[in-house]
Amino acid sequence: MRKVIITGALSVILAGNVLAQTPVYLDETKPVEARIEDALNRMTLEEKVAITHAQSKFCSPGVARLGIPEFWMTDGPHGIRPEVLWDEWDQAGWTNDSCVAFPALTCLAATWDPEVSMLYGKSIGEEARYRNKTVLLAPGVNIYRTPLNGRNFEYMGEDPYLAGRMVVPYVRGVQQNGVAACVKHYALNNQEVNRHTTNVIVDDRALYEIYLPAFKAAVQEGKAWSIMGSYNLYKDQHGCHNQYLLNDILKGEWGFDGVVVSDWGGVHNTEEAIHNGLDLEFGSWTNGLSNGASNAYDNYYLAQPYLKLIKEGKVGTKELDDKVRRILRLAYRTTMDRNRPYGALCSEAHIAAARHIAEEGIVLLQNKNNTLPIDLGKVKKIAVIGENAVKMMTVGGGSSSLKVKYELSPLDGIKKRVGKRAEVVYARGYVGDPSGEYNGVKSGQNLEDKRSPEELIAEAVQVAKECDYVIFIGGLNKSAHQDCEDSDRKDIALSYGQDAVISALAKANKNLVVVNISGNAVAMPWVKEVPSIVQAWYLGTESGNAIASILMGDVNPSGKLPFTFPVALNDVGAHKLGEYPGVPRNDGSKIVDEKYNEGIFVGYRWAEKNKITPLFPFGHGLSYTTFAYGTPVASSKTITADGNIQVSLTVKNTGAVAGKEIVQLYIGDEKASVPRPVKELKGFQKVELLPGEEKEVVFTITDNDLKFFDAAAHAWKAEPGKFKAYIAASATDVRSTVTFEYK
Ligand code: GLC
Q1: Taking the model in full, what pTM does it have?
Q2: Whose CA is nearest to atom 7 of ligand 1?
Q3: Does the chain have fewer CB atoms within 10 Å around its N or its C terminus?
Q4: Residues 6+ apart with CB under 8 A from 481
């Protein structure tokens, strides 16, 4: 065909015409939905299919021809992952991608403070924005069903109401930076063992009352722009392409208008990927036989196989257009929003935020004889003992692993805080995991120590005897079968012989505090031997400063547990009645069925139903001061449908130092036609009080707080009758109750 070259005046006119007609999809004065339709109509079939799956390990294509940018995903919930090679998990070796590690999300949940969560989301969102990421693959809100789950440290505890209140600000904070949050792992991913093959069997009440609420809040209140499907199965369909969870509930009942992103390697089937709610496929191991064998992106389930089915007329383009609309909507909310802020990386503000979140989330579990805080005017020599006093915790644990600007260890933080006021002596105490490397990021620490446990304990005891005060810093770490992705713990006890070390130290010095660094509950057989115990989560970049501030009393601890510490594993429903880790099918499918037989009775709900006394209850946390709760007053003794009542009380700081108290509201249905927990968390407020100061706390109770999910009617329902409002300092520390009637 002869090529006609247009020159001269005609070309100017044509060019002028073309420039004059700015495409609607680029015209920011037009509504986004109109821009989406315009862009969709300009895209070829191949471009539409291409945009629904990855082109590299963490990026998916835009539409280059139309100037629609690529989409860059990044882990994780606690900080921005370092760059990896185009098609590898290993490091790209960039020198400008170190980040601030914020505390783990269990710590955030333990602050019980939505304002802190907003600060968290804003800060990590700024780091993601500065690194030019489109989607932050976070936060995780899977419910803490078993203390063995390797990824509980990335989530927000056992209670759907607390997780729901805390996830919303995080999502909003991230997204105000023009970066999408991607709330994960939707849904029922409550363990790491058999995570790709576990088929969860759970009744609708537990699904709707326990496992879905935090995701629903993230979508309907947080307005999350993306959701990540889970690896596990539900009703025999993988979470990344699941008709029930994605189409019926997420997009149907909840009206989700964002993008469903698969977990990496979570897609297994083109037909289901087309029809069951998946929009964007990442990380597929295309030959389906092994991890990473042949990441030929054209072989992705939503790549050539999809295009082929369309071209053969075996599947239409309705589902494709819906996926593309959602992905274009993501573009207009992020990369194509000219008003996006610019973000920041490793700023003083982010470092201060990391420290503040950590200090707000640390939990004082026990403090006999007011052994804490340490009075530096009275001690000359402090022993710091334990591997977790020195071990870097920002490297490892799976996809949330980071390359940080720095991580101040607990030992270095204590030394810095103590200065010349006292001598600080360190002893290892035990050897856990001396390694420190993940995906090519190395901690650089050499923690090798060939001494025997006996030698290590003898040294620790000797040092303890010579000191006025002993701080043992242990717990779990980010190694396999500790707090780590893709593996669960094998039991609830501390590893590496720590229990023996702690007991020996308790005999050697009465001024002992145990600092447990973990993302899960651990057994504490020495709990009666040790005066003070602090739950100090994975605190990230500012670990050392935050721990030192709390131990020295610069900051009064105010965190409370977002999950129960059971005495033993059999005190947990998933282990007593549930089928954890599941029952393998014997049909060659590799599927492992797991019945959540405990149903809605998870965490404190289980403990109360079965009258089990926990080691430390949900919602527990002490202070260096004390608080008195006044008598609650209800605005009415009756509540009607769509009505509400207020319950108010005063809280007074009756101690000598300023502090914060988290007042909790639980609701119990005195008589129901279905089994219900004794009480369920339905409100909380963190109130700051100076010594002697008193403030009023007001809770509003609505009929929604009284409802359970009626599976038969597939609807939420409140039954007329008596209810009780419990005002509490923890799930087991009820200060008062108010009875009222729902009519
Ligand atoms: C991982 C995790 C997920 C993470 C993704 C990308 O397997 O399950 O949380 O965001 O893959 O690293």
Answers
A1: 0.96
A2: 264
A3: N
A4: 150, 487, 488, 489, 490
